[in-house]
Every structure is written in structure tokens, then in C-alpha cells.
């Protein structure tokens, strides 16, 4: 073979170039084939997803999207009106009251709500029901918090009276997260 290469240098060089070009084409082509297979798998997955979504009711088409957008806008308008309406209940300033007076207000509100619940035969945890202010049954709140707590107590009393009017069968649990001022922080 060495003799043939010496005698046919051009043909040997041409053969070498053809072999290298073929090898390069194979390597390049196999890499592209793998990329093609990955792209095809991704496309098939997305096509299946679109087909699945088209089968769902309601299919998200432009008309449905516009209808949904109108519903969202209508709901936002209702919320805005409600915020304006509820804003009228917010006091200009919060009246600072002594902790003992807050406890009196709490006991009075608890008694009124309990009467409303009992009048409508609503079960509630009688001894443990303090409108979410259970932590103040033994210890009064800090003086800095009483204005905010009294405002919240008034709102919760109104809320529970509304709940009682709805006549649920039972009131099982009440959870009221602490206000920042109850933990010694400032209110925003």
C-alpha cells in the first residue's frame, strides 16, 4: 500500500480528503440529528399540550379572554366601591383608652355576641370565646395597643353579629392574628 501511495500521491491525497470529509459530515450530521430529535420531542410535547387544552372547556380563545377580562374589571369595580364604602367606617383618629376600659369593652362585646349566638341556637365555645382576644382574658393589653384593639373589637363584634344573623349551626374556632402594635411594633 505504501508503494501505491508513493506512486499515486494525488489520488492518495484525494482519498484522504474524501475520508476526512465523510468522517466530518458523519460527526456533524449525528450532532444535528440529536438536536433534531430533541427539538421534535419538544414540539410533540407542546403539540400534545395544545391538543389537551383545546379539549378543555372553556378553551381559552380571544372571546373567552375578553369575557374574562370584563369579569375581572367588574369585580375590581365592586371591590373599589366596597373599599370606598368601608372607608367611611374608618375613624379619623384612634381614641387611646385605658387597658381596663378595653377589657370592659371586650366583656360587653362578648356578652352581646354570645346573646346573639344563643338567640339563634348557634353552638360556640362558650368559656373560650372572646372574639379572638383570648390572650387578654388574664392580662390587659399594653396601653399603646388599646386604640387599635378597640377599633378591631368593634369590627369583630359587628362581624360576629352578622355571622349570628346568618344562623350557622356552629362556630368552631376563631383566629385573630396579632396586630404589630400588640408585639411592640409600630402600626403603619
Task: Describe it.
- By secondary structure, the chain is an all-alpha fold.
- It folds into three domains: 1-56; 59-90; 94-183, no CATH class.
- Helices cover 64% and strands 0% of the residues.
- The protein is built from five helices and no strands.
- It has helices spanning 2-7, 9-55, 62-87, 99-119, 146-165.
- Helix 4 packs parallel to helix 5.
- The chain is elongated.
- The N and C termini lie far apart (92 Å).
Q: What does the secondary structure layout of this molecule look like, with pairings?
A:
Elements: H1 2-7, H2 9-55, H3 62-87, H4 99-119, H5 146-165
Helix pairs in contact: 4-5
What characteristics describe this protein?
single chain, 188 residues, mainly alpha, 5 helices, 64% helix, elongated
Principal-axes shape call: elongated
Return Rg in Å.
Answer: 38 Å
Number of helices: 5
- Describe the main β-sheet briefly: none
Number of domains: 3
The structural class is: mainly alpha
Give start-end ranges of low-pLDDT stretches. Answer: none
Strand content: under 5%
pLDDT averaged residue by residue: 86
User: What is the terminal-to-terminal distance?
Assistant: 92 Å
Q: Secondary-structure element sequence?
A: HHHHH
Give me the count of strands: 0
What percentage of residues falls in helices of 4 or more residues?
A: 55-70%
Amino acid at each position: 500500500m505504501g508503494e501505491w501511495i508513493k506512486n499515486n500521491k494525488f489520488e492518495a491525497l484525494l482519498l484522504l480528503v474524501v475520508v476526512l470529509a465523510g468522517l466530518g459530515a458523519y460527526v456533524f450530521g449525528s450532532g444535528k440529528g440529536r438536536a433534531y430529535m430533541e427539538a421534535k420531542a419538544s414540539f410533540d410535547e407542546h403539540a400534545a399540550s395544545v391538543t389537551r387544552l383545546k379539549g378543555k372547556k372553556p378553551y381559552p380563545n380571544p372571546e373567552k379572554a375578553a369575557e374574562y377580562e370584563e369579569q375581572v374589571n367588574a369585580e375590581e369595580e365592586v371591590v373599589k366601591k366596597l373599599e370606598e364604602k368601608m372607608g367611611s367606617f374608618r375613624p379619623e383618629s384612634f381614641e387611646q383608652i385605658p387597658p381596663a376600659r378595653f377589657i370592659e369593652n371586650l366583656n360587653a362585646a362578648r356578652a352581646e355576641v354570645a346573646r346573639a349566638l344563643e338567640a339563634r341556637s348557634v353552638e360556640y365555645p362558650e368559656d373560650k370565646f372572646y372574639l379572638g382576644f383570648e390572650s387578654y382574658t388574664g392580662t390587659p393589653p399594653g396601653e399603646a395597643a388599646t386604640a387599635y384593639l378597640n377599633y378591631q373589637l368593634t369590627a369583630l363584634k359587628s362581624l360576629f353579629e352578622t355571622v349570628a344573623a346568618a344562623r350557622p349551626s356552629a362556630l368552631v374556632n376563631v383566629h385573630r392574628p396579632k396586630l404589630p402594635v400588640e408585639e411592640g411594633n409600630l402600626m403603619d
